[in-house]
Every structure is written in structure tokens, then in C-alpha cells.
Write a structure and sequence with these properties.
The structure holds two protein chains of two kinds. By secondary structure, chain A is an alpha+beta fold. Chain A is built from five helices and five strands. The longest helix of chain B has 28 residues, at 174-201. In chain B, the strands form eight sheets. In chain B, strands 11-12-9-19-16-17-18 form a seven-stranded mixed beta sheet. A five-stranded mixed beta sheet of chain B has the order 1-2-3-4-5. Chain B has three domains: 11-261, Aldehyde Oxidoreductase, domain 4; 273-343 and 391-466, Aldehyde oxidase/xanthine dehydrogenase, molybdopterin binding domain (Aldehyde Oxidoreductase, domain 4, 2-Layer Sandwich), CATH 3.30.365; 353-383 and 478-760, Aldehyde Oxidoreductase, domain 4. The chains are: A alpha+beta, B alpha+beta. Chains A and B meet through helix 1, helix 2, helix 3 and helix 5 of A and helix 7, helix 9 and helix 19 of B.
Chain lengths: 149, 764
């Protein structure tokens, strides 16, 4: 089997695996990076949302081969050491989470949105399609506005 | 509110004489004792002797201070069969009371440990599935201890069989049932810390004060709780009473508090069952195309050779495949060649199920008597719980013991059934309750834990078993479909009779609730547990003359389970839509009609709040409208006002929500607001577009793509929540809002479109 090397949260990661193995399971089952969650496996719930070269993507439907030579950032790599990313801090300040399971994906989606669009409108925030079964959307929206500051 | 000093019904706790002299054992007990407020259970149902319920705190031998609290019900009398299981009394003695009562005569409920490094560890016999129970428990403990909240860790107990029925997380009962014992144990802990400090300082304990996890002397000397813990563990007679505070002294309880685990969640450190570091191997299960289908024959020759496959095992629900990664396990699962026996419902689809339910709802008994009447019928589809974390379990079954990690809401029954399935004595099964990614009722059941234990035993290795999202949608427990016939008769603007016939599939309560109700003295055998739960939860909170509500079970073999607010999600939602229908028939404003018909001042008060704050009756464009609804349950009341935009009938959007909620006392108003906001998302989803379809015994939907739970774009931009001032002790909150939120959306839809919805979800 081939070996794939990519940057993972600022460090080099190499895995030997089938090219079509979804990155989600490479992260979780091979590398032990469990921040990205499984919620559907087909790119619909978006609980696994992470960044590939800075853009939001869903590791559950992305083969590991597509990530070779690129930079993958998961929720574990969003903060700058002990200093939280502004979106993470806004999530705490708005006390967004209930069960918390979707929130790593929600935060990564929001961080990618703000990187591309520093002051999104409500309609632009509506484009985030991540599922939150606890229904924390109202607080997510407020946290995004807060992080946009 | 002390109880008589002569009460010493403590034998089973093996207390020493010195402990009996402990002021902490002159318990303040339940602060509701002697409560003369009209709503107190003691007043409303005196036969149950609630006034004698007390909680006792005492220290246990340990190197550091360890205090526990237990319940004593020396004369509580409902061991004889209570009449409360008869219909129509839920406003008097309800499910909250029953669960609290069931929890009484057990081993210690709660434990607090003060560590030498200044942490306060609070052990909670409940699950955390997102409702913030652990934060609420930490707040209560910090309040009575005068501890820094940041130094308090709330941890979930493993399954503790000695707790009998008091380790069931459900019925919105956790804060309601644990508030007083937590205050009692924390206050007793503080008394021992103060006593130890008095001995160290050589001053009278009564001169000492506490703040920020520190005892402070008048001369300025201080001692941290951690530094006092070992000495406090040796205190036999506290020198100050372990008396919980008067609520007027609260500085923590009632303050908006951010979840204690917020940082762990936003950094990805919060661990769910599949995130735990261990050697368990990824496992999935091939399941039948139809619900309840079984394996006739399996050919696994192709699957066995697939990359990463570690083992294949036939279990009761299908064929399990373990592999190095979940992707490999799923690929090998798909390579299995299985011949299935069809499930028991292979000839049933939605139309037939609805017809059976409709036919089963009994006819009305009250004749119209020359009065006028409003008769309506309602349908609900099946609905999945669909927590975002699919059902997962880690199991390590050995020859002579087993260890299980599961987000269990009924861990004792789960551990017992796992033991039976794998052939171990029940005391050889350890079940760790882990954080779970949502439940909404689903994690009362433990089907994946049974499966994981079976596979672990068969393969001889630890496994982490995951239901895929397809598994969850197509084989998970569901809120059963239902049919409702409702009729109100009225004369001169006044409702004379109200009848509601609720026909549905039997809700499965085999997770221990039935046993808990039996333990509380209810005869669940003759009426059946579903009838008992229905009677304990259903109440018509209006002065509607003779009001009767009945439940008819239609036994179809679908996997059911209680879904956020159990029967109320359908029964009470229907009632609130009916209230608008009656008001329409009377040509009366629905808010004014509720105002004059509601039976309690608390409910009228929350309705007033939302209609004032939400500007009820304001002018709105055609195709848009407001709707209101109320709900009363779990010792709490709530009202919602919503605004909806139905100008595109195919895509109605709730644009605004106003909620007022009175839970008696909000331990954490910030968490309470979160529950009320989230349940509005739930309510609008279930009313407008989220449901399942059954085609020939199989669930049509497979994921969130076709099961249309709300997204951000469906969620109102404007939601406000008004938390009413405290009036007593905390009631329940987690499920409280659902019926009112769902019905307010339906009522707004009816007013916006001119068409009352009778089938839910409205968009099919």
C-alpha cells in the first residue's frame, strides 16, 4: 500500500493505507485524532468539518490520497497553543454547546467562513449547513457575529 | 424546618454513635418540607407523606474528606398502591414525583470528595447528554460549599446496582430530584471543613466564614479546603450545623453560568465513547433491509479476505464485522452475502399503519347534548431521535468479567442485561457512563451495548461498536406514529367537555422506568406501564369541564422509545392546536381564550410574558403570522410565541421566538435558556418537516439528507427567553419546552395560511 504524507495541525504525518481510505478514518482510527466526529459518513451532517489548506472540507468523503502534500487542520489545531482561536473563544462566551458533539465541525465551518468573509450577514451564515441536533443554531449565529466583532 | 430529633431510621446505613450526633444528621432535609405553597406536592397530595422525606449526609472513612448523602423515608406511605395511576391526576402527582419517590430508599445518592490539591469532586448518578446536568450539579455544590466553581469537577458514576431505580436519567427529573440532596451533602461537607479549620486555628467554628474554597478567620488567617481535607475527614462531630443556605443567600444558584466543559468541547478534548483511548477495534453490524429482519444464511468468504478485517461474528441483530478502521469494517460488511428473513412488518406501510391507528382510537363517550362541538383528528409520523453522535459502545468482555463504556441513561438495567447476554454474574460487569452526543430519549436503551458485548465475547477482544447513520435511522428506536381524535363541547362560550383519544404503538419502557414506578408503589401490571406513564404525565391545564384523555396501544412490532417529553410531544401538542381551534370556533382571540381558560396562575403569567414581549397581535404582512402555545409539566410551565413566514408554502420559516419559562428556580438560567432555544429548533423541525416514512416494513429515510431536521437556515434569527423569578425549588426543564414550541409553530402556520395542520410533519 502507498504512503501518504501531509501536514496535520502543523506537524508532518505519514500513513500507509489504501488511497481511497477516507481521511476521517485515517485521522480517527490510525492517527488517533478524534476531534473530527462521524455523524453520517456521506458529507451531509458535516460533524467532521476540518480545513484543507485553510478551506472547510469534510474528511468523511475525502480520500486520504487527495490530502497528500497538503495542510490538514482539525479542531485540535485551531488554537494557537493555549490561546484559543477567536471563534473558539466566542463559542465559550456565548455558551454555545449542549451535547457538544457537532461543535468541532461547527467551529471549523465558522472559522473558514470568517477567514473568507470577515463580517458575514445572517443570510451568509445560513449557508453553514452543519447539523446540530440540540438546536444550538441561535447561539452559533451569535457566536459567529461575536467572533466577527 | 428541622425534623424531630427522635427520628433515627438509619439502621441500614450503619452509622456510628458519633455520626448520629453529627449536626449534619439533624438534616434540613427537603426544604420543601412544610411548604405551604399551593403547588407543593405535600399539599396537593398529602396522602403521600412528602413532608417526611429527608436527606441525611454523613462522612465515610477515607484519607480525604468524603461526604455522602442518602434519603430516608421513614414514614412515607405509598408502598400501598397509590390511586395516582388512575387517569387525570397528573397535575397532582406526576411522573416527577413518581421518579423522585422511586429514588428514595436506596444507598447513598451523591458523594463529594475534597482532594488535597483543592479540587471538589462531585459524583453524580446520572448521564450527561447535553442538558448541562453536570454543570448544574457543580453549581449547587459550589453554592453550598462556598467553593470556586472552577475547582468543582462533576463526574458521572459507573452503573451502581445498589441505587436500584435511582440511576435513570429521564423524565426531566435530574435537577428536580438531586437539588436537595446535593445541597444537603455540600452543606455537610462545608461544616466539616469549617470544623477542621476551627481546630487548626484554635477558635470557635462559629466565628469562621467561607469563600472561594477557603475558610477565613476573623484575624485574617485562611486555610484552603484542600489543606483541610485530611483533618476534616477525621472530624466526628461538626461544630457548626450542616444547614443548607436560605435561598436568599444564594450567590451561585440562579446566576447565568457557562458550561464547565465548554473549553473541552471547543478544543476537541471532550471525549465520547469512540474517542476513548484503548485497544478496542472498530466494529459495525450488517442489518436487515427491514425492521426486525433476521439472518437466514450468511456467506462471509469474500468479506474475510478484505483488507484490515479482524473478525466476523453473527449476533442476534445481524452480522458484525471488526476491522482495523471503520472504513474497512464497513467495506467488509458490504461484502457479506446475507440472505435475510423479512421483518414482522414487511407488509406494512404508512397508509396501513395510519388506518390501524385511526380504527383503534375509541369513539367519544360524551354526547353533544345540544351543545356545540369542535371535533378534529390528528396524525403524527414516526420520528427518530437521531442524536448527532450515533449509538456507540466500547465493550471488553473477558472470561470472568466485562467492562463496558456507554452513554447510558439506564446503566443499571443495561449492565444487568449485558451480564445475562454474555453469561456473567451481574456483579462482574462494570459499566462506565460516558459523555454522549445527544439522546432525546434514545440512550435510555442500550441495544448497541448488548451487541458490543456479544461481539467482544465472540471475537475474544475489546471492540468499539458503532451504528452507522443508516443503522440509526432505519433500525433505531422511534417516537411511534399516532392518531388523535379530540372533541370539545361548549355552550355560551364555555367548554363543557374535552375528550382526547390518543392511539399509538406501545412505547417501550423496558429500560427500567416500569420497575421504578413499581418500586414507588404503582401497580404497573394491571393497567400496563404505558397506561401508568400516560396517566402520570397527561393533564389538560385548562378549565374545560369534564376532561378525559385516553391512551390506546396498537401492538405493532416496531422499535419504539420515549422521545423528548414522552407522550406530551403528541398529546399536549394536539391539545394546544385544539385550543386555537376552539377559540376559532368561539370567534375568540386564542390568547384571550387561554387567559380566561387556563387553570393555573403560573401558566397565565408565562403567557402574559410572551404576548407582551412578543407584541401579540401586531400587524404583519399576509402569509406571515404569530402563534402561541403553553405547556405545564415536570413542576414547570412554559409559553412560546413564534412568528412564521409562510409566503412560500413549500418552505415556511420560523422567523422569531419568544419564550417565558418558570421552572420554580433556575439553577443555571444560561443553561435553561439553551434548553428553551434548542427545543424550539426541535419543535419547528417536528411540526414542519422532520419525520420518517415506512415502506413495506422499512424506514425510507437514511440520513440527515432526507430526514429534514432543521439547519441554520431554518432557525429563527431572533429568539428571546424570559426566565421567571424563583418561586420555590427547581422543576424539570429538558423536555418541558417541546410541546409548546411544536404547537406554537403549528398555530402560527394555521394563522399565516388559513389552514390548520392536522398531520405532522406538515410538509410530509
Amino acid at each position: 500500500m502507498p504512503t501518504f504524507t501531509f501536514m496535520l495541525n502543523g506537524a508532518t504525518a505519514s500513513v500507509t493505507t489504501a488511497p481511497d481510505e477516507p481521511l476521517l478514518w485515517v485521522l480517527r482510527d490510525v492517527l488517533g485524532v478524534t476531534g473530527p466526529k462521524y455523524g453520517c459518513g456521506v458529507g451531509v451532517c458535516k460533524a467532521c468539518t476540518s480545513h484543507l489548506d485553510g478551506a472547510a472540507f469534510n474528511p468523511c468523503i475525502t480520500p486520504v490520497s487527495e490530502c497528500a502534500g497538503r495542510a490538514v487542520t482539525t479542531i485540535e489545531g485551531l488554537a494557537n497553543g493555549a490561546t484559543l482561536h477567536p471563534v473558539q473563544q466566542a463559542w465559550i462566551d456565548e455558551d454555545v454547546a449542549q451535547c457538544g458533539f457537532c461543535q468541532p465541525g461547527q467551529i471549523m465551518a465558522a472559522a473558514a467562513l470568517l477567514a473568507a468573509n470577515p463580517n458575514p450577514t445572517d443570510a451568509e451564515i445560513d449557508a453553514i449547513d452543519n447539523v446540530c441536533r440540540c438546536g444550538t443554531y441561535f447561539r452559533i449565529r451569535r457566536a459567529i457575529h461575536r467572533a466577527a466583532g | 424546618m428541622r425534623v424531630g430529633k427522635g427520628d433515627r431510621a438509619l439502621g441500614k446505613h450503619r452509622l456510628t454513635r458519633s455520626e448520629l450526633a453529627d449536626p449534619a444528621l439533624e438534616p434540613e432535609g427537603d426544604p420543601r418540607e412544610g411548604d405551604s405553597s399551593p403547588d407543593s406536592a405535600a399539599n396537593r397530595y398529602p396522602a403521600y407523606g412528602f413532608s417526611r422525606r429527608r436527606f441525611l449526609a454523613y462522612a465515610v472513612a477515607a484519607p480525604v474528606l468524603t461526604v455522602v448523602v442518602t434519603a430516608v423515608d421513614d414514614i412515607v406511605g405509598p408502598r400501598s398502591r397509590p390511586a395516582a395511576a388512575s387517569p387525570g391526576v397528573s397535575g397532582v402527582f406526576d411522573l416527577s414525583d413518581a421518579l423522585t419517590l422511586a429514588a428514595l430508599p436506596t444507598a447513598y445518592l451523591l458523594k463529594i470528595v475534597v482532594t488535597a490539591d483543592d479540587r471538589v469532586i462531585v459524583h453524580v448518578p446520572r448521564a450527561e447528554v447535553g442538558q448541562g446536568i453536570t454543570t448544574a450539579m457543580a453549581v449547587i455544590a459550589a453554592e453550598e460549599l462556598d467553593a470556586r466553581l472552577e475547582s468543582v469537577d462533576a463526574v458521572l458514576d459507573d452503573a451502581r446496582p445498589e441505587l436500584l431505580w435511582n440511576q435513570l436519567t429521564g423524565g426531566s427529573n435530574s435537577v428536580h430530584s438531586l437539588y436537595t440532596p446535593m445541597r444537603t451533602v455540600a452543606a455537610a461537607t462545608r461544616a466539616r471543613l469549617v470544623t477542621a479549620a476551627a481546630q487548626r486555628f484554635g477558635v470557635a467554628a462559629t466565628t469562621l466564614t467561607t469563600r472561594d474554597s477557603t475558610v477565613v478567620a476573623r484575624d485574617g488567617r485562611t486555610a484552603t479546603y484542600g489543606s483541610l481535607s485530611a483533618a476534616a475527614a477525621r472530624v466526628t462531630v461538626p461544630a457548626v450545623p450542616g444547614t443548607p443556605k436560605d435561598p436568599s443567600q444564594f450567590t451561585r444558584i440562579g446566576q447565568p453560568t457557562t458550561r464547565l466543559d465548554a473549553r473541552d468541547i471547543v478544543t476537541g478534548k471532550a471525549m465520547y465513547a469512540l474517542d476513548l483511548p484503548n485497544l478496542a477495534v472498530p466494529t459495525v453490524v450488517a442489518r436487515a433491509p427491514t425492521i426486525g429482519g433476521t439472518v437466514l444464511a450468511v456467506d462471509d468468504s469474500a468479506a474475510r479476505g478484505m483488507p484490515g478485517v479482524l473478525g466476523i461474528a453473527r449476533i442476534s441483530s445481524g452480522v458484525a464485522v471488526a476491522a482495523t478502521t471503520f472504513d474497512q469494517a464497513q467495506a467488509a460488511r458490504d461484502a457479506l452475502r446475507i440472505t435475510w428473513n423479512p421483518g414482522p412488518n414487511a407488509n406494512l406501510s404508512d397508509a396501513q399503519i395510519r388506518a390501524k391507528l385511526k380504527a383503534a382510537a375509541p369513539p367519544f363517550v360524551v354526547p353533544p347534548l345540544g351543545s356545540l362541538s369542535v371535533s378534529r383528528e390528528f396524525d403524527f409520523s414516526f420520528a427518530p431521535h437521531a442524536p448527532l453522535e450515533v449509538l456507540t459502545c466500547v465493550a471488553d468482555v473477558r472470561r470472568d468479567s466485562a467492562e463496558i463504556w456507554y452513554g447510558a441513561k439506564s446503566p443499571i438495567v443495561a449492565a444487568q442485561q449485558i451480564a445475562a447476554v454474555v453469561g456473567l454474574p451481574s456483579d462482574k460487569v462494570t459499566l462506565h457512563v460516558v459523555r454522549a452526543g445527544g439522546s432525546f430519549g434514545h440512550r435510555l436503551f442500550f441495544d448497541p451495548a448488548i451487541e458490543a458485548a456479544q461481539v467482544s465475547k465472540a471475537l475474544g477482544r475489546p471492540v468499539k461498536l458503532m451504528w452507522t447513520r443508516n443503522d440509526d435511522m432505519r433500525h433505531g428506536r422511534m417516537r411511534p406514529a399516532s392518531h388523535h381524535k379530540v372533541r370539545a363541547t361548549y355552550l355560551l362560550g364555555k367548554v363543557l367537555t374535552y375528550e382526547h383519544r390518543h392511539a399509538t404503538l406501545p412505547v417501550d419502557f423496558s429500560h427500567g422506568l416500569g420497575e421504578a414506578l413499581s418500586a414507588a408503589g404503582f401497580d404497573v401490571l394491571s393497567p400496563g406501564v404505558t397506561q401508568t406513564v400516560f396517566a402520570l404525565t397527561q393533564n389538560v391545564p385548562y378549565n374545560f369541564g369534564v376532561a378525559t384523555q385516553t391512551l390506546t396501544d396498537v401492538p405493532l412490532a416496531f422499535p419504539t422509545g420515549s422521545w423528548r417529553s414522552i407522550y406530551s410531544g403528541q398529546t399536549a401538542t394536539v391539545n394546544e392546536v385544539m385550543v386555537d381551534e376552539i377559540a376559532r370556533a368561539l370567534n375568540t382571540d386564542p390568547v384571550a381564550f387561554r387567559g380566561r381558560s387556563l387553570s393555573s396562575a403560573r401558566t397565565r403569567a408565562v403567557l402574559d410574558q410572551v404576548t407582551t414581549a412578543g407584541r401579540w397581535g401586531r400587524t404583519m404582512p399576509p402569509g406571515t403570522a404569530q402563534g402561541v402555545a403553553i405547556h405545564e409539566e415536570y413542576k414547570s410551565v412554559v409559553a412560546y410565541l413564534v412568528e412564521i413566514d409562510c409566503r412560500d408554502r413549500t418552505a415556511p420559516r420560523v422567523t422569531k421566538g419568544v419564550c417565558a419559562v418558570d421552572v420554580g428556580r433556575a439553577v443555571n438560567p444560561r443553561g435553561l435558556e439553551a434548553q428553551m432555544q434548542g427545543v424550539l429548533t426541535d419543535g419547528l423541525s417536528m411540526t414542519l418537516h422532520a419525520g420518517l416514512h415506512i415502506d413495506n416494513g422499512a424506514v425510507r429515510e437514511g440520513s440527515y439528507s432526507d430526514y429534514r431536521f432543521a439547519r441554520m437556515a431554518d432557525s429563527p434569527v431572533d429568539i428571546s427567553v424570559i426566565v421567571m423569578p424563583p418561586t420555590g425549588d427547581p422543576g424539570g426543564a429538558g423536555e418541558l419546552g417541546f410541546p409548546a414550541a411544536a404547537a406554537a409553530v403549528a398555530n402560527a402556520y394555521a394563522r399565516a395560511t388559513g389552514t390548520t395542520p392536522f398531520s405532522f410533519p406538515i410538509l410530509g
